[in-house]
Amino acid sequence: MTLIPLIDAAACSAHGDCEEIAPEIFRLEDVAVVIGDGPDELMLVAARACPSIAIRLIERESGEQVYP
Amino acid sequence: MLIVGGGLAAQRCAETLRRGGFDGGVRIVCGERHRPYDRPPLSKELLARGADEAFPLLRPAEWYGEHAVDLITGVRASALDHDAHRVEFEDGSALHFDHLVAATGARPRTLPEFAPYANVSTLRTLEDSRRLRELLSEGRRLVIIGAGFVGLEVAAAARAVDAPVAVVELARQPLGGVLGAEVGDLLVRLHRSAGVELFFETEVSEIDGGERVEALTLSNGVRLSVDHLLVAIGVVPDLGWLSSSGLPTVGIPTDLGGRSALPDVYAAGDAAAFHDPFLERHALIGHWEAASRQGAAVARTILGEDPAPAALSSFWSDQYGMRIQYLGHAALADEVTIEGDLDARDFVAHYTQAGRLVAAVVVGRPRAVPELRNRLSYLTETTAV
After folding, report:
1. B367: which chain A residues are within 8 Å (Cβ-Cβ)?
2. Does the complex come out with an ipTM higher than 0.90?
3. How far apart are the first and last CA of chain B?
């Protein structure tokens, strides 16, 4: 659990892929929102699946952007 | 609150209304007999082996009851009586509305010369997709008219299950040439190396068959045998039910909040032509993302909220495991420059007009997207004079 997911609300167009892949982390409202925590691997799968590339993943310790 | 049509725009509208605290009645009347489902998979993963039972519902069945949304399926609208605030349906019923959302989407364009034949179809509905999957799984030889996104995605899906497939396109480039020669050529190379026969600047000059199309002769002299023919040449708004309403049936022009020219009537999705502040005209978009945003925009208008800022036009396509990300208005471009390696599927194509970036296609470089989106954000603003 070293990654922090951030959603670019202006980019998100509510496809819902992230919620489908990781419902414990993402929920679809008007746009996707982060509702919880989960394994890094799952976050990466969800972020890569996002057709709008609206999910950024930040390394908690270093602040480095891991994705995209 | 009456929403006519049961696709993505209708679903997003209903969802946004309820999330925004709308406490009036919400009714969706859906022409198809299914609950609202997602269409992009119809030309992609639903054609894959083993997808027989897949049903890409936008929301589970219980969602509608939980959110007090009354969903009626299998009923098509036949007329709008605006004076009476009433919609009539093909089954003879009629419903009153305070607010009406026209979200009846689009239907595929067809070719009259193929109308008499039994083995010709289009791809728009779940049934269309299931029929195609069955044919492909039997290894039937598919001929596709049209090298747009649907045609190319189906061709890719056909090769994935080893079904023989040919694509016949009137234009010189796939996707109407909008993405330019370089990206078009890359797609052509990908499809050809996967075993798709592709013919450009070609049309059908002769059809052989009785009840079924057996073979086609093309304008270049090539003869293709046919088990099934798919016509994939785009869509037109499905608005016959508005023919006596005073609203144009070629697409309902709306403002950014989804309001049509008629009071209390809104439109969203493929049936709507939202105003584009940058292009300074109403535009039929037809992309998934536009339908999603427009459905939500109508809901916000009805809730009395300000319209969301205009969004950058964008779409994506998956072919042969390659995700193509598109942003902006490539049709405006006078020049295309490629950064990266096309054949390594790792590049950004920059589309410029008089040196200014107007669109981008990104493959294999998701990291580039946020910055491109920023650089293109001016396209969502009113043209500076």
Report:
1. 67-68
2. no
3. 39
